[in-house]
Design brief:
The structure holds two protein chains of two kinds. Chain A has helices at 4-7, 14-24, 27-35, 71-81, 140-158, 180-183, 187-197, 221-241, 248-256, 261-273, 279-292, 296-314, 320-324, 363-372, 392-415, 418-426; strands at 51-56, 62-66, 85-92, 109-111, 114-119, 163-167, 172-177, 330-331, 346-347. Chain A is of the alpha+beta class. In chain A, the strands form two sheets. In chain A, strands 1, 2, 3, 4 and 8 form a five-stranded antiparallel β-sheet that branches. In chain A, strand 1 and strand 2 form a beta hairpin. In chain A, helix 8 crosses helix 12 (296-314). Residues 1-6 and 409-427 of chain A have low confidence and may be disordered. Chain B is 62% helix and 4% strand. Chain B is built from 24 helices and six strands. Chain B is mostly helical. Chain B has helices at residues 4-13, 43-65, 70-84, 97-115, 119-139, 142-150, 161-166, 168-171, 181-187, 199-203, 221-248, 253-265, 270-279, 287-295, 298-310, 315-328, 332-343, 349-363, 378-383, 390-393, 398-409, 419-427, 431-442, 462-483, and strands at 20-21, 25-26, 157-158, 190-194, 208-210, 213-217. A four-stranded antiparallel β-sheet of chain B has the order 3-4-6-5, with no helix packed on it. Residues 1-24 and 266-280 of chain B have low confidence and may be disordered. In chain B, helix 2 (43-65) packs across helix 5 (119-139), helix 16 packs parallel to helix 24 (462-483) and helix 22 (419-427) runs antiparallel to helix 23 (431-442). Classes of the chains: A alpha+beta, B mainly alpha. At the A-B interface, helix 5, helix 7 and helix 8 of A face helix 10 and strand 5 of B. Chain A: Keywords: DNA replication, DNA-directed RNA polymerase, Metal-binding, Nucleotidyltransferase, Primosome, Transcription, Transferase. Chain A: Belongs to the eukaryotic-type primase small subunit family. Chain A: InterPro entries: DNA_primase_S (IPR002755), DNA_primase_ssu_euk/arc (IPR014052). Chain A: It holds the Pfam family DNA_primase_S.
């Protein structure tokens, strides 16, 4: 359908970016989401004007502290700058664009969504299919299990419901939590939440990186749940698809996690005969060894170790620094990834396994679809152009999300009109 | 000038956080400081109660800075409290516990006034106060503690038996029992609070989380109370900071409050600040040389010597030494005179004005951000890459350190025999202990071994070292005068 020449266009060229921002980027929905309240006139919008946007220009210059009264102004400026991508920061106590004129004590990051970032590079030590910047459907399995674990934990344990998962355009995934309570967490609380959810400590070296027990104790209930979720996919992902223990290097890593030195040397002896035997065979052999242990204490110890191994191989590896501070910037949804040209689209966590990063629309594909659909019908306005492209389901999903964030606030406003008055006076 | 009549009025106010009960007495040793002192106090009481409390808070801060363990901090604080701010339990006999509690309350509220003024001060005050509260809570009589807890509402919800049984599998994890887990579980009470109130416990996975609520076993109760204490104090400080303009009118209180806040900003024990102000008034550029030979700690001597030798210091050297001299008492004019003279050998007057004048004025808070920077303390000098703590930086070349020590201090009685002891401390990375030992040796006339700067205090700030040294000299001179 699309002319092949169009598939090769440069996703960082000014022309492409301008068309994308003018005709496709969902500024209206972005505004709705970030403003959290009903759409109002310029004077009344409360949160959006206090929100920082940071642009990465095509020459890699980085512009911080931009802010706009509304989506229309923002769109104008973005079309003027045509940044290769932009990031969303916190809501400050003053409008970020006035940063130079307000006193530093009056310019504080106050609120923002809680964000999480999972990046495939943190899995390099265990994934066997790709490395560095590459990603394929196979290593997406790691992301999928990470999303399942994290999504369940946050909804069930923290009680948050407004979760938006966004594909980062290449090899990672972002999570935005917009619940009012999450939006207003302090840095200390954010840190606590991240630490609570962090199991894998950062570090390049292989070896034991899970340390979540106090002595011989059981796993805390939260991680028990996580283990169960992981257990469902461990066999398929780690043992079969990734075949993590299928090489000598792979099984040596596994053995380094076995606390029972005698058992480790027995297994090493056996496996060195057939270093290429499939992972699930090795795993079953290890299970059998554990079963044969006479000493109850030692057996429990090994069971614990195997749980730790499950966690080490498949528990979400979080980039903790991103989540700890309110003033961290994170790439906005629907930006174009400059290297792949793919759009950072939202993902439904319930269908995370079906998601294929290779099938995410690229900007060239979208522009071709626009061309095919013919010129815009509504004259100069490009309001509904995205409806004609494969971006539609994603923007629909995003709009639905923005509405869910909005509704609760609106309801609250009706029940207590005083809040509105206070807001007006404040700003 | 305490008026008993007002106290009974308090009772009639019928506030819900019953602070004064039983004949108008404060019935608990612990307090969340919900109720401000509503009686007349003299200006003197106002100041002394705050100063005494400040000593303790400063000690707590320096404990944190010196990486003391919790037990050590607790021990030191309890000792200091006994000295300056005794607070006995109800069972103590022969002591006016009410007077103690009043002083405790008054000091707390005065310091609130002094420390509500900037976010930095609020944060540090909160941290120190919460630590003090923790120490007192831990050391409180268990019966009185229970009575205190029952008297407050901490917004926690008791977990019903049904709910407890529903989550039995998960909650059992948080029970420690050697033998009979079921009985232990049935005996343990759980409370439910919003997880955001106890981030510390959540962070360490010490509680069970469900739907945004944390299920806290009764033995972790203390954490909730600390959190409540901190939260209430934070809110109260913010409210105070908004109301402070009303107090600003009062000419009698303002200087006191300013002084208190200053004492905390410098990050050092308050009694040292006081002495620095008295000794440090009239230092002129010409005096620096002789002061350096007698009173400076090694870090500043090294900087002074290299300034004299090269007629120049690199940026961080200028920064550290300049701030040190400023706090020592060199005025801005004298400072410019000093630096101009010191650089004269190398750079001309024009060059000086162009390149360094601004920096010096900046460090006095006269340019740019107009912040009056405090001098760097030992902790900061330890981590400095340039012009930092010589004990630390020369650790890997002990010969250089030894010769530096000998050349700097031999005139004041440091001999080659003292070196092994000092070097042993350096090797243990106890740089401040090494520095304190040098102080003891060079001031052997006034302090004994182990006394440090007096009262066992160790060096935490180069200015503290210098000020104490100057002070000791003054004292001994006064004594000589007496003899004559």
């Amino acid at each position: 359908m699309a002319p092949s020449s169009n598939l090769d266009i440069d996703p960082t060229s000014e022309e492409v970016l301008l068309t994308f921002y003018r005709r496709l980027y969902p500024f209206k929905q972005l505004f709705k989401w970030l403003n959290r309240g009903p759409e109002r006139t310029e004077k009344e919008s409360r949160l959006f004007p206090y929100r920082e946007f940071a642009f990465t220009l095509r020459n890699d210059a980085y512009l911080r502290y931009n802010s706009y009264p509304n989506d229309i102004e923002m769109k104008k400026h973005v079309c003027l700058l045509t940044p290769s991508r932009f990031e969303i920061g916190p809501v400050y106590s003053a409008q970020p664009r006035d940063k130079k004129t307000v006193r530093p004590t009056h310019f504080k990051a106050e609120k923002r969504e809680v964000v999480f970032d999972i990046d495939m590079t943190d899995y390099d030590s265990i994934r066997t299919c790709c490395s560095d910047a590459d990603i394929c459907k196979r290593c997406w399995g790691f992301i999928a299990v990470a999303v399942e674990v994290l999504d369940t934990a946050i909804r069930d344990q923290f009680g948050y419901t407004q979760l938006l998962w966004v594909y980062s355009g290449r090899r990672g995934i972002h999570l935005w939590i917009s619940d009012k309570e999450a939006f207003e967490l302090t840095d200390d609380q954010r840190k606590a939440m991240v630490e609570y959810l962090t199991v894998i400590r950062h570090g390049k070296e292989p070896g034991k990186r899970v340390n979540v027990r106090f002595g011989m104790k059981d796993l805390p209930p939260a991680l028990k749940d996580a283990c169960q979720t992981i257990n469902q996919t461990f066999d398929e992902l780690i043992l079969q698809d990734q075949d993590c223990f299928g090489t000598q290097e792979g099984y040596e890593t596994l053995l380094s996690l076995v606390p029972d030195a005698k058992m480790a040397s027995r297994l090493r002896e056996r496996w060195s005969q057939k270093p290429d035997s499939p992972s699930y065979v090795k795993w079953d052999e290890m299970k059998a060894e554990v079963k044969d242990l006479k000493d109850k204490h030692a057996r429990q110890n090994m069971r614990n170790a195997m749980e730790d191994i499950l966690l080490q191989y498949a528990y979400p590896r979080l980039d903790a620094e991103v989540s700890k501070h309110r003033n961290h910037l994170l790439k906005a949804p629907f930006c174009i990834h400059p290297k792949t040209g793919r759009i950072c689209v939202p993902i439904d966590p319930d269908r995370i396994r079906e998601f294929d990063p290779a099938k995410v629309p690229t900007v060239s594909q979208l522009l071709a679809e626009l061309d095919a659909a013919g010129p815009s019908t509504s004259g100069g306005e490009h309001r509904d152009d995205w409806q004609k492209t494969s971006l539609k389901p994603y923007i629909d999903m995003f709009e639905q999300y923005a509405n869910s964030v909005q509704e609760k606030q609106a309801k609250m406003g009706v029940s207590s009109p005083n809040i509105y008055i206070v807001c007006l006076v404040d700003y | 000038m305490f008026q008993a009549a007002k106290q009974s009025k308090l009772q009639q106010d019928g506030n819900d956080d019953v602070f004064f009960v039983d004949n108008g007495n404060t019935s608990y040793r612990l307090s969340l400081y919900d109720q401000p002192p509503l009686y007349d106090v003299t200006v003197e009481e106002f100041e002394t109660s705050a100063l005494d409390r400040l000593r303790i808070l400063a000690e707590i801060e320096s404990s944190a800075a010196r990486n003391r363990s919790w037990d050590e901090t607790k021990q030191v604080t309890i000792t200091q409290c006994g000295k300056y701010l005794p607070l006995n339990s109800n069972s103590a006999s022969g002591i006016d516990v009410q007077a103690e509690r009043k002083k405790d309350q008054l000091g707390h509220f005065v310091l609130r006034l002094a420390f509500c003024r900037s976010e930095e001060l609020r944060r540090r005050f909160m941290k120190a106060e919460t630590t003090l509260f923790k120490i007192r809570f831990e050391s409180d009589d268990s019966n009185e503690r229970r009575a205190f807890l029952n008297s407050k509402d901490f917004n926690w919800i008791s977990v019903s038996k049904d709910e407890k049984d529903e989550y039995k599998g998960q909650l059992q994890h948080f029970i420690s029992a050697k033998v009979d887990l079921d009985t232990a579980f049935n005996n343990e009470a759980f409370y439910k609070v919003k997880w955001t109130t106890i981030p510390n416990l959540v962070e360490k996975r010490k509680v069970f989380l469900k739907g945004g609520y944390a299920y806290v076993p009764a033995r972790e109760q203390a954490s909730i109370i600390y959190a409540a204490f901190e939260e209430r104090l934070e809110a109260a400080l913010l409210a105070t900071s908004r109301a402070i303009p009303l107090v600003d009118e009062d000419m009698r209180l303002n200087p006191i409050l300013d002084n208190l806040a200053q004492g905390f900003i410098a990050g050092v024990p308050s009694d040292w600040v006081a002495s620095a102000e008295t000794t440090g008034e009239n230092i002129t550029a010409d005096m620096v040389d002789s002061l350096a030979k007698q009173h400076f700690p090694l870090c500043m001597r090294v900087l002074h010597q290299s300034l004299r030798k090269d007629h120049h210091l690199k940026h961080f050297g200028r920064l550290h030494y300049g701030l040190f001299l400023k706090v020592l008492g060199l005025s801005i004019d004298e400072a410019i005179a000093f630096w101009r003279k010191s650089f004269a050998g190398g750079s001309g007057s024009d060059k000086f004005d162009k390149e360094y004048r601004y920096n010096i004025r900046h460090s006095f808070g006269l340019e740019g951000r107009r912040m009056n920077y405090p001098a760097k303390n030992c902790l900061q000098l330890h981590s400095a890459h340039e012009a930092g703590c010589p004990y630390r930086q020369l650790e890997s070349s002990p010969e250089n350190l030894q010769s530096a020590l000998l050349s700097s201090y031999s005139a004041q009685g440091l001999t080659i025999n003292d070196l092994p002891e000092i070097m042993a401390q350096v090797k243990k990375r106890s740089y401040h202990v090494a520095c304190t030992r040098v102080f003891e040796i060079t001031h052997a006339r006034s302090v004994k071994k182990g006394e440090g700067l007096g009262d066992g205090e160790s060096v935490t700030h180069p200015n503290q070292y210098a000020a104490r040294s100057i002070e000791l000299e003054k004292e001994s001179k006064e004594m000589e005068v007496d003899f004559v």
